[in-house]
Each structure stands twice: as structure tokens, then as C-alpha cells.
Amino acid sequence: MLQVTNLRLGFASGKKMLVAVDGISFVISKGETFALLGESGCGKSATAQGIMRLLPAAGRITDGSVRLEGTELLTLAEADMRQVRGARIAMIFQEPATSLNPVLTVGMQIGEVLDLHCGLRGEPARQRMLELLRQVGIADPERRLDEYPFQFSGGMKQRVMIAIALAGEPDLLIADEPTTALDVTVQAQILDLLAQLQRERGMGMLLITHDLGVVAKMAHRIGVMYAGELVEVASREEFFSRPQHPYTQALFAALPEVSRRGMALTTIPGQVPSLAAMPASCRFADRCTHVMPVCREISPDWRGVAASHTLRCHWSGSTAVVANHTPRMGLGHLMPEMAPFLDVVDLKVHFPIRRGVLQRTVGQVLAVDGVSLAISAGRTLALVGESGCGKTTVGKALLQLVKPTAGSVRLGGSELVGMQGKRLRAARRHMQMVFQDPFASLNPRLRVGEIIAEGMSALGLESDAAAQGRAVAALLKQVGLPDEAAGRYPHEFSGGQRQRIAIARALAVQPELLICDEPTSALDVSVQAQILNLLKKLQEELGVAYLFITHNFAVVEYLANDVAVMYLGRIVERGGAEEVLRSPKHPYTQALLSAVPVPRLDAHSAAIRLPGETPSPANPPAGCHFHPRCPLAIDVCRQRYPETSEISATHTVNCHLAR
Amino acid sequence: MLAYIVRRLLYAIPILIGVNLLTFALFFVVNTPDDMARMQLGVKRVTPEAIEKWKAERGYDKPLLINSGAKGLSTVTDTVFFQKSARMFVGDFGRAEDGRDIAREIASRMGPSLAIALPTFILGLFVTVSFALTLAFFRATAFDFWGVVLCVAMMSISGLFYIIGGQFLISKVWRLVPISGFADGVDAWRFLLLPVLIGVISGIGASTRWYRTIFLEEVGKDYVRTARAKGLPETIVFFRHVLRNALIPILTGVVVVIPLLFMGSLLTESFFGVPGLGSYTIDAINAQDFAVVRSMVFIGSVLYIVGLILTDISYTVVDPRIRFE
Amino acid sequence: MMGFQVVLLWSDMLIWLLVVAGIGVGVLVAKTPPLLAAWRRVGADRVGMAAATVLLAFIAIGLLDSLHYRVQLDGKPGQKASYAVEVLSVLDALAAPLRLRNEKTYSAPFATRLYAKETIDLPGGETLRDYPRLKHGGSHLGEREDAVAADAGLTAFRAGVLALLAWAALAAGAAALVQRGPAAVDASGWQKIWRRETAFAWDAVLLTVGLMLLVVVPLFWLAGQYHVFGTDKVGQDVLYQVLKSVRTGLIIGLVTTLVMLPMAVLLGIVAGYFRGWMDDVIQYIYTVLNSIPGVLLIAAAVLMMQVVIDTHPQWFSTAAERADLRLLALCFILGITSWTGLCRLLRGETLKLRELEYIQAAQAFGVSSWRIIVRHILPNLMHIVIIALVMDFSGLVLAEAVLSYVGIGVDPTMISFGTMINSARMELGREPVVWWSLAAAFTAMFILVLAANLFADAVRDAFDPRAA
């Protein structure tokens, strides 16, 4: 149905043209899902925008053809192209929060597609809109139709986007990272919805994603993109059983998984070449483990390895050898169990809600509502939860960056809550934080050396400049950066390197505990592997304990000794990683685990689908917070919050059903 | 929403008190009534008796804040602050140097001021928003480029030039309308035409550029991409999607000046001889009539605060996100 | 020998302080790669650099006009030296021909006779009503008054040739400089400039310098023989007035922003960073100041200041000092009324910055609040301050003209664009029209403000992270 041939497009930058997509070709048939898989900056979104001819102002299509059922789209007059957009090809985007017009009602935004492409107006249009909203699973559509986007939650907004896309009854749906901005449980809902709609309508779908799990769940065929080129195209079965291209293999090997616990993850050395300096030979050559002289001279041609499997690579060695190269590393949890180094009891952080004429406090946002944790020296505790559950606030409250409302935080025996001035500063030596966004966590105006040394001087560790310089050099070496990095500025480093700098900064004061707040969620898979490896190595060498705040179960499985699952400001299940992940007792944990898309063929056993989304922490449901979404809820769940029940010496759960 | 507006209204009270105290400090503490008397009487005629007489005639001979000589409540009320500053809250502005009642004068001059300021404001807003929208629609073309060049050139020209040049060309050389003056009733249009035209033209440069920036910012947003992906023509994308969102910052930015239109424009009114509040202010400044300047400062602040409140209200009207909070 | 006494006016001090600060900032920028990169982007902007060249010429005039002295009067030896009441500047000395060759009243540009008829005594005792011959304008022509066009044209042509030669020398210098720079392999410096291959917008600068030379050299050459812009009511050369107005405009445009800068930056950051009651107080202060219409607050303050100046004549030894103090006071008043905008902008930006992770990382180390402000917040707000500084300049120059017209601007004795326009505008009513004063003032102001606006745009584009 859709045939893309040798599409080339680029972005004008001054007098030069930076080629972002260099001659890619693929086809999508009716009812098929073709996934474009690739890391950030590989040109997959530009491809989608090129097909729609919706490139940003600097973008130009320089060559190639895009045919939709025989019609060439690239030469179509703009007015005719508008008849294609929305009616024959529809598109949904990554950020549902910004992709809807904030000042128009949902009904108006769906209605304009109906008006334009189906000629529906007035009452028939309204009926059709209601039908569409029902199809995408929005309850009470009569009322919702006249509401504005800000009144919808994230997942609901994405459903509205899908309804808009479906309104023109398109033959092809382009989904550009449709679930990246959403929580796992919501992601599962949206993916199910997309798959179901596609089946019903026999639509073609171009799915753009970086997530192998999403690919495994959705795609029929997969194209892997690297640096503006397609490097491997294969059917789902072929792709997951016999990935051929070294890049694809490395992507798989870089995934953190439970089976790789204790091992270093495979990483891809180096970086994607920049658009301005693309080599004419194989673009992956510089990072490839199987590189041969020919790779550096000639760009490989397509060759078939099976009926539905082609790739561009000179190397024809066997598959899945990559994983064996990895050296075995010791396991963190082999360290002897000791008294907890950090002991948190009943920590609460409430933010007041002020309303009315006099701004009186009318309520509290219960961001953190009675969390208890313990971490022993040298161990890793993963704090898992979806967005808005309060896990980041816990991290900040531990460091006293946010003042806890109640509770106790004991670090190495001394109470931090209420501590002031000098003593608090001294206590901060023992605990530091690594943040999520490597771009916002380093001051762009300071040199790397100054950034790393900041903690040392603030806490009075190394006062003379020479000693400080030596310490900075040692730290840089420790996190795998060259000495001369100290004199450079953050903008000269990539995301992964910046995260290394942030880790070095935290380690500079030799803390015994590092709070890592989603340190890898902004990074690509291959870079994520590097950071995880580094964190593991540092734990081995320094015996530092981690509180790992994350929503990513793969990382938890790979890294954590203990796990605590958080829902709406409270911990609902806590225990050793094996216990919680293998035999989860809380229905929420069970649902979370089953919602994670697994990058394997055989992944999909009976999945538990949670309805709805996390309620607001300003107004948590009565009884068990989870009961409105719980598939197993009984009467007692609606009445009181469950006590903590012990499953084993280390495993506890707050659920009425888990006795 | 009602609570929100009530809160904004309550917030205005301390600000008004602040303004009042500030003007009081400026007019009576930094410079004492003695200084003012000397200034008004002229250096030659200054004698202690003349100063005392001047002060007594105008009620400046009382103590500033607390009258320890008086009894009861009048320790506070029989003071310069209470008589001159605090009474402005109830619309009592006292008398000007020429003995006329300032409040009455203000009331009679508001009409001519509005007659010029209001059409200038409405027409100017329409012209600049349309021009900016056109530029943004043809963004990154030669039209847009030269439009911006024109705007920068126009905003680099002194406002005085527009007035003087306009008067010279249209009234003096072409003799199309009278140079200056004012009339009541229907006949006023001949006098209004030129000042309004000049007011609109002199505002084009800066405003158009500012609105164009707002439009371009909106055009870059994600929802515009969504609208295009629906297959909507660019005109609808612009008028239905971009314009509505861009109007939020534009409208709320201009609402604040609406009440200030009552104050008129200093330059235009004085050049065109319009008997409005603007020329009243200028005359007062030139005559160093402190009572009038003080009153105008106070009225201006009150109108500005009204504008702030109107801005808050207009937010609730145009932005559904605030309306439903 | 003529002795002289250096006079350091307050505004001179501020302006030279500004120059020193500018050099200091320049050194600092050269050491800080991110800032240097931003300024390099400004340097690559052709329009911006052309505008900067024009601005530099204006600044040079202003600086020359900011070195003041008083000439020693002739006195008997042994007596205590006494000095002239008149305060002169280096510019006055350089432009002495312009300053001293006053006519009786109005005369048109390039005129040889006055603009008004007068009764002239003829040698024979008779009188005649005619336009009298100018004392200086075109006096070298003698009787050949009709030869003005030819003479002026020839002089302009000669001066133009000279200007071209000077420009060629400058251009050769620039080409040599470019050639010496790194990576000059295949092309000569001249070719590189021509093909726009240089990082710095040399072509724009050279073009602007060329145009300026072509206009300015003939103009000043001719100014020695004619009143190129005419003379005003008291017969003063209008070109001289334009030159003197530049300094006033520059001081109003630069010193005002500088006066308000420390307060706006400090209060804005403090309000945004500490929030709570400090934020409330600061917001209250600037809402109150903001709510008083600007012109009225300025009017009120200037009136008050005039009272102070008039009642304390003993403070000033010369008229120049009095005018200078009024100018400075005007800067302060304008500054106080206009700091609120920048303050609010900085407060909003600080609110955003303080939530950034690198600030929280610093807080996690227990770095003190003031150190965080100085190390982390202030450097990341500098671009807003710089943009505000250059954006405000043109508005303030324009505002000066309006305020002087209203009568609340600079001292009436101080030459500025505003006072020039104010004194000349009534003459538009004359028949025939006296247009040259107004035209000269408006044109000069237009060029200055346009250059400032264009330069401000270049700076904003280079520093605004959203634009990059």
C-alpha cells in the first residue's frame, strides 16, 4: 500500500545541507504494522514527517518517491496533499500534552476532521464523534466532548489524538513514539487499543519507536535505522530469533535483564557520527565489534538472509555471539547483610493546597504519605512507581531538599529531619544524588572541573587547589572520562558523558549512599548500558549503596537487591528483588510487571490490564488507594487501608488479599 | 473564579495605599510646602509672610502627618496627609493654582481625551494585529523580511516626528484638515482624523513586531503540527488554531491599557490643542501646578490597577484553563 | 601658554567608568568560551556588525565630548590663575570652527545669506532692506555667491576621493589581518572577505565604514566653509548641535540602564530564589512603582528635583555642572521608573532556574544560597541582562526627546535632540519654513536609534537560547 523508495531528506543549515535520512526504502501493506526502530537522532521521525510532507521549515526532501496505492505523494500539489493528510494517512505524536490545541474543545478538534474529510456537520458529526470517543475507550463521551484538553489525563489525551486520527478513516496510521511519554500501565492500554483498532479496520501502521518491547508487542515487520539509513529489515519472527546486523545484536545485548544480573552489559563504544560528518562507508564501522577493512571503504549493499529478512552488512558471521564477550562481575548482594545504613520511618511530605479569597489551606497534596525504607551499606534498593507516585519527592526529602512534613530519616545513626546548618552539611557528605536529565543537571557556565569540585569546596574536603585538581582527575578516571575533560564545558559532551560527570560530582564527596533519580531514562539503550555498567563497577569498588528511583523494571531486575513499589505516596510492596519480581503479591505490582512490554517473541502471557490512571495525590481514594483500579477489589478494600503483612522475613505487602 | 477576582480586588487596596504614600512622600516630604511656595511665588517675591500666606490659602500650613495641637480625631484628620492625600480616595482632589476644582475639570476633559484615545487604540490594535498576522502567515519570505525591516525602521523614528511631520504635510501643505483644535459633537471628526491617524501609524512598528513574535512562537508549537497533519488548509490552521492561542497573550497585554485611555495622550493632545486630560497634565507640569500633577498621578495609578484587575478577568474569559480552575 | 583646568563632571566619570567596565567585561568574556561563542555569533551577524560600526562612531563622538576642561584666563603673572566660566570638551576644541563661527540668526544649509531681511547700511549712507551676507558661510567665495553649487560639489568630490583612499587603506589592513588568521591556505584575505568566508562579518563592517567615510569626510570638509546643516535662531551651526546632542543621548541610553541594573538584578533574583515574604515585598514594591504612569512619575520627580536645584544654587560653580546634575538625576528617575520590567523578567527566570537540577545538586552539597546565586543563577541570567541593556537603549534615546519636549527632560541649556526639536518646531509655522534644524535632529536620531535597534536584534538573536 505505502511504498517508500530511496527517500532522502535533509535540513538546511546555512549554505550546507545536513542529510538526516539517506535513501531509505520500505513498503507497508494493508493491515500490517511496520516498525521503524532506532535510537534518538537516527532520522526515524524525520522519515515520518517526510512521508506526510510536514517537515519543519528548514527540512527539504531531496530525492526519492513515496507512493500511496500508486499515487506519488512527493509531487502532489499541496492542495491535493491536504486531501491525503488526515483522510488517507493520519498521524499521532509522542507528546499528547502539547499536541492538542489547548483552547479548543475536544469536540471541535475532532469535528474539523469530520467536516473536512467526511463532510459531516451538526448532529451527524456529533453522533460520529461520540462513536469515535467510545471506540477509543473514553467513558461518558457526551460530557467529554465539550471539555478542553487540559481536563484530560495524559493517557486520555492520547486516546483523543487517536480519535482525531481515526476520524478521517485513514488507510495508514503513522504513530510516532505514541507511548513514550506515558506510564507502563497506560502504555499497555494504548498499545492494546492501537492493535485492536488496526485489526478491526485493516489499517496499515507505521510505528516509530526506540523500544524493543513495544516492537515485540506490536510489529509485524521491523526496520532498524542507524544514522539516517535502514540497516536491517526483517519479519518479527526473524528479527527476534535471528538478528543479524551487529548494531541490532548490540541493541539486544545492551538491554538490562534479569538473566544478565551480575554481568556487565554489552555497550556500543563511541557515538553516532554527526550529520555533518557522515562517513561514505558503512556508518556503523567505527563502533562495530566485527569491523573489517572493507567496512571502512564501501557502504554495504542490501543482501537477503532469509525470505523476509534483508540487511546491509559486510559481515556474515553467526548470531548472538555478542553476549559472550561480557566479563562476569561480582554480585552486589554477596556483601554481608549489615544494619541498615539509611533508615526511613514513616516519612511524609505534604504540600498545602491554598484556595479562596484568603488563600487558606483547604487541603494537602499527599505526595509522600508514610514511607518506610531501609538500605544497608553497599546494597541497591530500587524504588519503583509510575509518574506522580511521589518517588522523586522521596529522594529529595531524604536529602532534605524538600522539608519532610513528618517522619524520621536516620543516616548512619543520626537523625536528619530538623537538622540545621553545619551538622546538616556534614551529614550531606554521606548521601548524594544523581539526577534524571543530564542536560539540566550540569551548569552550562561552569567547567567540568569546577562542577566536580563544587561539592568538595562546599563541604570543605580538599581545600588547596592542587589536591582538588588531583581529586578531580582521579574521579574523571573513575567514571571513564579523559583527564582533559576537566577544562571543558558541559555542552561539549554527549548525554551519556554528562551523566558520567554528574556521577563524578556526586562521588566527589565520597558518599556512602547515592540516590539515583531515573539516571538512565533520558538516555538511549546503548548509553543506558554504559551508565548501568559504571554504576555497578563503582559499587564493587567503593561499596556505595544506591537508592535507585525508576519506573523501568528491566533496570530493576538487572541491578536491584531490594525493591519497593510505590503507589500514590505509599509503599505497597517491599522485599528482595527475587521475591518481589518472581512472586509479586500486590495486585498493583503484578499488573505493573505484566504491563511491561518484553522484547521477546514469547512474551505475552495473560496480561493484567489496569483500567484508568493514577488518581490525584490531593484526593486519594478512601480505603486502599488502589481499589478503584484493582481487578480483585473486595468490600473491605473500599473501607480501610490494608495493614502491612509479612510474606517472609524480608518481603512485606499492604493488601487485604495477601494474607 | 469569583474568589480569584475578589482576591485580586483586595490586593489592589494595599497597592493604592502604597501609591498614595509614595506621592505624599514625593510631594510633601522630599520637598516641603515651603519649597513649593518659593517656586510658585518666584524668587523675587519670596518673603516669609508671602510663603505663609500662600500655604494658608491652600491648606498646606497644617502639620504633615500628626497634628499634636488638635484634639481627638482631628489629630489625624487636620493634617496635610489627610486633607490632601487621603481625600483623593473619595475623589476630592482640591483646587488647582487657578482656583478651579480639579475633579470637575477632570470630568469635563475626559470626553475629548477618550474621543482620540479610543479610536486610536481600537484602530491601532486592528491594524497591527492584522499586519503581524500577515507577516507571520508569509513567514520566511521576502514579504516578511521587508515587513520586519519596515517595522524596525518605523520604531526607530521618534514619535515627535510622526506628529510634526503629519501636521506639516497633511494640514499645512495639503490643507486637508485643520492643524489643531477641537469641537464638540459631530463636527469633531475633522479634528480627530489626523491625531488618530498619526497615533495609529506611530504605533505600528513596535507593536507589529511584538505580535509577530507571539504568532511565530505559536506557529512552532506541537498542536499546529497536529492541525496540519489533519489536512487543514494553512488559512484555517492560522485563523482557527494559531490566532486563538496567540490572542491570549496579546489581549491580556492590551487590556491593561484600556482604563488608561481615559488619561489621554500627553503629546498628541498638546500638539493638536485637544482640551483633554493629557494637555491638562502638560499644562500643569509647565505651570508647576503640584496639586494637578498629584491628582493625575493618583488617577493614573487607580486606572492602572483597574487595568490589572481587568487583565485578570480577561484571562478567565479567553483561557479555558483558567476559567475552569 | 594657555593653561587649562580639567573638569570632571559626574556624568563624565560614569561614562568613563562604563568604558573601563566594558573593557573589563571584554577581558572576562574572552576567558569564558560560552560567552565568547555568543559574541562570536554577534560578530558573524552582518546587519548587527554594520549597526555596531555606526554605533561605535556615535560612541567616539560621545567620548570626545566627555573630556571636559576650563581654559585659563589671561591674567597678570603672579596673580592667582582664574578660569573661564565656560566648560569645554575635547569635541568643542576639535569642532572649534563650527562652534565659534556663529551667524546672527537663521540661515539655510549652504546659504551665503541670512534667512531674514534686514536693514543694511550702504556706504553712501542709504539703507536697503535685503538678506544680509553671512559672516562665515561661504565667505571664501567673496562676490561669486552663485558658484556655491560648483564649489561645494568640487570640494565634496575631492573629499570623496580622499575618503576612498582612506577606505582602501583600511580595507587592505583588514585583509592583511584576515590573511594572518588561522587556516589561510588557498585564498587571500581579500578574497575571503569578499566571499564571506570569514567568521567575523568583515564585509559588512568595511562596507559601512566606506559609506560612512564617503558621507562624513566631505561633510566635515565642507563644514569648514559652509553651514552644511544651516544655523538656528541664534545663528549657531546645526551640525555642531547635532554633534553635541550625541553625548546626551548616549548618557541617557546607557547610564539609565546601568543605574537600574544592580537593583533590578538583585531584587529580581532574591524574589525568585527565596520566594516567600521577600517575594511578596518585592512584588509589592514593583507593582506600586509600575502602577504610577511613567511620564507622570518622571514629571513629578523632575519637578521636585528642579525645586531642589533651584533652592541650592550654591552647589554648582558652572552652568554645565548644574545641567549635568539634572541630566544625571533624569537618568536616575528614568532608571527607577523602568527597572520593574527587567526585575519581573529576572524573577520569572530565577523561579525557573531554581528548579533546575544543577541548582538542586548544589543545594544537596549544602552550598550557601548566596554562593548558588553568584555561581549558578547570575551567570545563567546574564544573557537576559545584556539583551535588556541593548534593547532599552533605543527606547531611552527616543524617550529623552519626548520628555525634553514636555519640559521634564534635560536642562534647557543642554544641547540634546529633544531640546533641538523643541526649539525648532515652532518655526515650522514660519513662512517660508525653517526645516533644517528639525530634519537634522530627526535624521541623526533616526540613524542612532536604528543602529541601536539593529544591533540589539543581533545581540538578542545571539544570546537568546530559544533562538539558537
Counted beta strands of chain C = 5
User: Mean pLDDT across all residues of chain C, rounded?
Assistant: 85
Helix content of chain A: 25-40%
Largest sheet of chain A: 8 strands, mixed
Spatial gap, N to C terminus of chain C: 60 Å
Assembly context of the chains? heterotrimer
Structural class of chain C: mainly alpha
Outline type of chain C:
globular
How many H/I helices of chain C? 16
Arithmetic mean pLDDT of chain A = 87
Distance between the termini of chain A: 56 Å
**How many β strands of chain A by DSSP?**
24
Beta-strand percent range of chain C: under 5%
Strand pairing plus helix content of chain A: what structural class? Answer: alpha/beta
The whole-angstrom Rg of chain C is 26 Å
Element layout with pairings:
The complex is a heterotrimer of chains A (659), B (325) and C (468).
Chain A: E1 2-13, E2 16-28, E3 33-37, H1 44-52, E4 59-68, E5 71-72, H2 78-84, E6 89-92, H3 96-99, H4 106-118, H5 122-135, H6 141-144, H7 154-167, E7 172-176, H8 184-201, E8 204-209, H9 212-218, E9 221-226, E10 229-235, H10 236-241, H11 246-253, E11 302-306, E12 309-312, E13 340-355, E14 360-376, E15 380-384, H12 391-398, E16 406-411, E17 414-415, H13 421-428, E18 431-434, H14 448-458, H15 465-478, H16 495-507, E19 513-517, H17 525-542, E20 545-550, H18 553-559, E21 562-567, E22 570-576, H19 577-582, H20 587-595, H21 635-639, E23 645-646, E24 652-653
Parallel strand pairs in A: 3-8, 3-9, 6-7, 7-8, 15-20, 15-21, 18-19, 19-20
Antiparallel strand pairs in A: 1-2, 1-4, 4-5, 9-10, 10-12, 11-12, 13-14, 13-16, 16-17, 21-22, 22-24, 23-24
Helix pairs in contact in A: 4-5, 4-7, 5-7, 7-8, 14-15, 14-16, 15-16, 16-17
Chain B: H1 2-30, H2 33-41, H3 48-58, H4 74-77, H5 80-85, H6 102-137, H7 142-155, H8 159-173, H9 189-219, H10 222-229, H11 234-255, H12 266-272, H13 277-286, H14 290-318, H15 320-323
Helix pairs in contact in B: 1-14, 2-3, 6-9, 7-9, 8-9, 9-11, 10-11, 11-14, 12-13, 13-14
Chain C: E1 4-7, H1 10-31, H2 33-44, H3 46-64, E2 68-71, E3 88-89, H4 90-94, H5 96-100, E4 118-121, E5 127-130, H6 148-180, H7 189-194, H8 202-223, H9 238-274, H10 276-291, H11 294-311, H12 319-353, H13 357-364, H14 369-406, H15 417-425, H16 436-463
